[in-house]
């Protein structure tokens, strides 16, 4: 079995950082025995607290490219955000050991958490709202001038 999944670790929280990666080691009726990535002791959890690895923004790193030395963006599940990291290698199938560059912290993560550098920002820019676009333009102009909407943006404001 040994499927990679995410476990709901705080059933009262609703944000993405409540779901942490784990490996299923055994199915037991409506419960599963799981092992959190990077840990040694498994535990039992009801299947209602288990989900497939979530779909993430950005362009995934192909598994064959996840080799030692690769720099990429990695979903940090506990923080609920992406961080620049370097792949150090792989201990288990379907995972990579990465070092987060800003904090020099090492963690084992599912390969699905690895994203191409810059693809997160590109995805976010493509999906920003008009208000976010105007705010970003104002920041780039130093907040001194109002960003004039383009003809396309004016049409969308109507």
Description:
With 158 residues, this protein is an alpha+beta fold. It has 3 domains: 4-51, SH3 type barrels (Roll); 63-118, Roll (SH3 type barrels); 128-157, no CATH class. 16% of the residues lie in helices and 35% in strands. The chain contains 3 helices and 10 strands, in the order ββββββββββααα. It is globular, with a radius of gyration of 20 Å. The termini are far apart.
List keywords for this structure.
globular; 16% helix; 158 residues; five-stranded antiparallel beta sheet; SH3 type barrels; 3 helices; alpha+beta
Shape: globular
What does the main sheet amount to? 5 strands, antiparallel
The CATH architecture name of the largest domain reads Roll
Instruction: List the total number of helices.
Output: 3
**Structural class computed from helices and strand pairing:** alpha+beta
* Integer count of domains: 3
Rg (C-alpha, Å): 20 Å
Distance between the termini: 54 Å
Q: Uncertain segments of ≥5 residues (pLDDT<50)?
A: 150-158
| Average of pLDDT | 82
Assign the CATH class of the largest domain: Mainly Beta
Percent in strands? 35-45%
What is the H-and-E element order?
A: EEEEEEEEEEHHH
Physical arrangement of strands within the biggest beta sheet = 4-3-2-1-5
CATH fold node name of the largest domain: SH3 type barrels
**Could you tell me the number of beta strands?**
10
Helix content: 10-25%
């Amino acid at each position: 079995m040994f499927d990679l999944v995410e476990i709901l670790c705080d059933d009262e929280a609703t944000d993405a950082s409540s779901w942490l990666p784990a490996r299923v080691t055994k199915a037991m009726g409506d419960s599963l025995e799981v092992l959190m990535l990077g840990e040694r002791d498994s535990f039992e959890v009801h299947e209602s607290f288990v989900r497939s690895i979530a779909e993430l923004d950005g362009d995934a790193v192909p598994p064959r490219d996840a080799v030692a030395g690769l720099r990429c963006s990695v979903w940090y599940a506990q923080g609920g955000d992406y961080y620049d990291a370097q792949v150090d290698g792989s201990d288990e199938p379907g995972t990579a050991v990465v070092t987060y560059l800003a904090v020099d912290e090492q963690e084992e993560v599912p390969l699905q958490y690895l994203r191409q550098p810059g693809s997160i920002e590109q995805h976010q820019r493509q999906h920003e709202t008009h208000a976010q676009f105007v705010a970003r333009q104002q920041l780039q102009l130093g907040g001194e001038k109002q960003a004039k909407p383009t003809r396309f943006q004016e049409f969308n404001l109507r």
